[in-house]
Design brief:
Blueprint: E1 8-10, E2 20-29, H1 32-61, H2 69-79, H3 93-115, E3 136-141, E4 147-148, E5 154-156, E6 160-165, E7 176-181, E8 187-195, E9 206-210, E10 217-219, E11 224-225, H4 229-247, H5 253-287, E12 290-294, H6 305-312, H7 315-329, E13 332-336, E14 362-364, E15 371-373, H8 374-392
Parallel strand pairs: 9-12, 12-13
Antiparallel strand pairs: 1-2, 2-6, 2-8, 3-7, 4-5, 5-6, 7-8, 9-10, 10-11, 14-15
Helix pairs in contact: 1-3, 2-3, 4-5, 5-7
Bound molecules: zinc ion (ZN).
Length: 417
């Protein structure tokens, strides 16, 4: 049972004014011939991407300006006339152009991450693609004339009419489709669709969410959310097959078999996790007008042990879902930077109580005497910071003052310490 292949995913790139872009993913069942054609297309897109990357690296090294889009595109077309690259003609030209576009996006993300314009985890320099990469993908835009046929199949230029499992309806005509093969050898079509947001009726409820150490998330109202049992079970199984793999001799037939098992277990864990994130994020966004989370994707933290467990649990994927769902349903969403000492401040009186080792799960405020659950207290402070941000600057990312105001009195009591 894997629903994640069917759910809406977020596409964080360019958005149109007033519209949000969502991804709808479906499982594909290509025939043997179509698989071969897809393998060829993945290979060609990879070569075009790598050629362009090599050229870019070479021009950088030589201190020259990197050729622009038009020139790259012209070079690509010309290369099809050379014997070394003539086989690129077997693949939809749009797919190859999109490979060039991918490289541009990769560089853009890298530079914006470097300058701090892009939030979230650091993005490294673009890397060469390999046939051994666990995820292979190609993209067809509307120009490529891909088409959903009356018989339910998906027509892909130079690939064929591919069978799709339509687990839900596409809301409108998609603007592009990405065809993906994952490490478990499954195929997916991920359609990009522009949709108009559908704001939910307003509610007065707000929510602050902290990463729990023993739980996936802790809410300011005291709710502690753990990963569902199904997810924990498949995670355990993944660990088991990993151990099995390490015992197999390198290059042996058995090892190859176990490797496929590992890939499938990985896919199952990823699916289960995604389902869990979807259910939780939808519930929170439906029930609250404003949601504030702690943003952990900050430099420095990435090396700590806490960060690893957090990254494993997919916190950033979860908060990205909250963000796009907030946009879609007309809710407010905020991220609070890690520079806020949310676990050191009393959410009741605002006093800064000092650093506390991770082992301290409960503490009593020296000033007002309230006993706090560490995580719930932090979630309350996160909520207060979110409120303050909304008051201070609508939509802006403002660094609030060091001490957090008492929950419920944001803005009225600062620096009580
Ligand atoms: Zn206090």
């Amino acid at each position: 049972m894997s629903a994640s292949a069917n759910v809406v995913e977020f596409w964080p790139e360019a958005r149109y004014a007033g519209e949000v872009q969502l991804r709808y993913a479906y499982r594909l069942y290509p025939t043997v011939r179509q698989r071969q054609a897809l393998a060829r297309a993945f290979g060609c897109a990879r070569v075009v991407y790598n050629d362009a990357l090599a050229l870019r690296k070479a021009s950088h090294k030589a201190g020259e300006r990197y050729p622009g889009n038009a020139e790259m595109s012209a070079r690509l077309t010309a290369s099809k006339d050379t014997p070394e690259r003539a086989w690129l003609g077997d693949v939809s030209a749009v797919v190859l152009q999109q490979a060039l576009a991918d490289l541009n996006i990769a560089y853009k993300n890298f530079f914006e991450s470097l300058s701090g314009k892009r939030k979230g985890p650091n993005v490294g320099l673009p890397q060469f693609r390999s046939r051994k990469d666990t995820r292979q993908a190609i993209r067809f835009t509307a120009n490529a004339r891909f088409k959903v046929l009356g018989n339910g199949k998906l027509r892909l230029p130079k690939i064929g009419d591919v069978e799709v499992r339509w687990s839900r309806e596409l809301p409108t005509e998609p603007s592009s489709v990405t065809v993906i093969r994952d490490s478990a050898d499954r195929y997916f079509a991920s359609f990009m669709v522009n949709v108009t947001p559908e704001p939910l009726p307003e509610t007065a409820a707000e929510c602050g969410i902290d990463v729990g150490l023993g739980h996936f998330a802790v809410l300011d109202d005291g709710t502690k959310v753990s990963a569902p049992r199904f997810l924990r079970r498949v995670e355990k199984k993944l660990k088991r097959v990993h151990r099995e793999l390490s015992r197999k001799q390198k290059g042996s037939r058995n090892r190859q078999k176990v490797r496929v098992k590992v890939a499938r277990a990985h896919a199952r864990v990823a699916d289960a996790r995604k389902d869990f994130h979807h259910q939780l994020s939808t519930k929170i966004i439906r029930e609250n007008q404003a949601v504030t989370v702690e943003d952990l994707a900050v430099k420095g933290l990435a090396r700590t042990k806490l960060a690893k467990s957090v990254h494993d649990a997919g916190w950033s994927a979860f908060t990205a879902m909250l963000e796009y769902k907030a946009k879609f349903y007309g809710r407010d969403f905020h991220r609070i930077g890690r520079f806020e000492p949310t676990s050191q401040i009393c959410s009741a009186c605002g006093v800064k109580d000092g650093r506390k080792p991770l082992a301290v799960r409960e503490w009593r405020c020296k000033k007002c005497g309230i006993v706090h659950d560490r995580d719930v207290n932090a979630a309350k402070n996160i909520l207060a910071l979110g409120r303050r941000e909304r008051l201070n600057a609508r939509g802006g990312y403002v660094r609030p003052p060091e001490a957090v105001a008492a929950a419920g009195e944001a803005g009225s009591r600062r620096g009580a310490a």
